Amino acid sequence: MTKIFAHRGSKGTHPENTLAAFRHSIELGVDGIELDVHLSKDQELVVIHDETLERTTNGSGFVYEHTLAELKELNASSWFSLYDDVQQIPTLEEVLTLCNHLGFTGIVNIEVKTDQIDYPMIEERLVSLLQQEKTFIPMYSSFNLLTLDRLHKLDPIIKKAWIMEGTDSTIDFANYFQAIDSIHPNFEWVVTAQEELSGFTKSIRPWTVNQESEMWMCFEKKFSGFHTDYPEKALALKQLYVQNQVVTY
After folding, report:
1. H or E segment at 164?
2. How, if at all, do strands 32-39 and 107-112 pair?
3. CA–CA distance from 41 to each of 23, 61, 63, 64, 222 (Å)?
4. Under the GO molecular function aspect, what terms does this record hold (predicted)?
5. Cβ-based neighbour number of residue 129 at 10 Å
6. What pLDDT score does 247 carry?
7. Alpha carbon distances (Å) from 114 to 49, 51, 181, 248
8. Cystine design at 34: which of 22, 96, 109, 214 (Cβ 3.0–4.6 Å)?
9. Is 101 a catalytic residue?
10. Of 41-50, 137-146, 190-199, which gets the smallest average pLDDT?
11. Mean per-residue pLDDT for 2-29?
């Protein structure tokens, strides 16, 4: 059955990439959470989407220009008008600790944000951290093929996904690129590329799927999963879809 991934925790209802968002999604019962990872000035793995701080915090400048201690002084929920509590930028280790504490057995999709900035040794740091005991299933994803290839060489066991806008040529390449076992394409492209995808042999998990009609299409097409900013809505629709299948068959 198609798995539901909470995009940046629950971006539509909570401050994105915060412990509050991840806790909310896990407690909802999602199949997976998705998060984004950069390196701080002192080489700590921190969870934030943008290369810069302005959009999602009350700080400014590039993430890599600040130490972890400096990043921890910022409020990662200040931009989100529906949420009053202060939320710090979490480290990846803090998010994974939360997953273990909650007994989360789903997938943690770690997007490695190396498509704009080259973070030396980020792949080694990720693989080292993921050696810990865990209740969850880790997955790496990235737009950067070199990053995925490095991760595959360091740890061929953990599954990896190529995030892509999508074209006919990239689909052909993705089928043969051994470092990945899945793709995470833009949903708008997926809608127009049904013929190209019909012969694709790896898992497909589109982003970002927020409308009910889009979610229903993902269920109908039996995609491996999809990423959504509204996991609660997606879970309710998934239950309805399953009930509909039982009635139909």
Report:
1. strand 159-164
2. parallel
3. 27, 12, 7, 5, 42
4. phosphoric diester hydrolase activity
5. 16
6. 58
7. 11, 9, 19, 45
8. 109
9. no
10. 190-199
11. 98
**What is the pLDDT, as a whole number, of residue 84?**
82
Q: Which CATH number fits domain 3-248: 3.80.10.10, 3.20.20.190, 3.60.15.10, 3.20.20.10?
A: 3.20.20.190
Residue 78: both structure tokens together: 């200040």
Q: Is 7 a catalytic residue?
A: yes
pLDDT in tens, 215-246: 999 999 999 999 999 999 999 999 999 999 86
Helices (H), the chain: 19-28, 68-72, 92-101, 122-129, 145-154, 168-176, 187-192, 194-197, 212-220, 231-248
Q: What percent of the chain has pLDDT over 70?
A: 98
Which candidate in 14, 24, 38, 49 is catalytic?
Answer: 49
What is the pLDDT of the chain when averaged over all its residues?
96
Only one residue has tokens 């833009």, namely: 186
Structure tokens at 79: 């931009």
Tokens of residue 180, six digits: 């990945």
**Would you tell me how many other CB atoms lie within 10 Å of the CB of residue 35?**
24
Domain ranges of the chain: 3-248
Grouping H, G, I as helix, E, B as strand and the rest as coil, residue 67 is coil
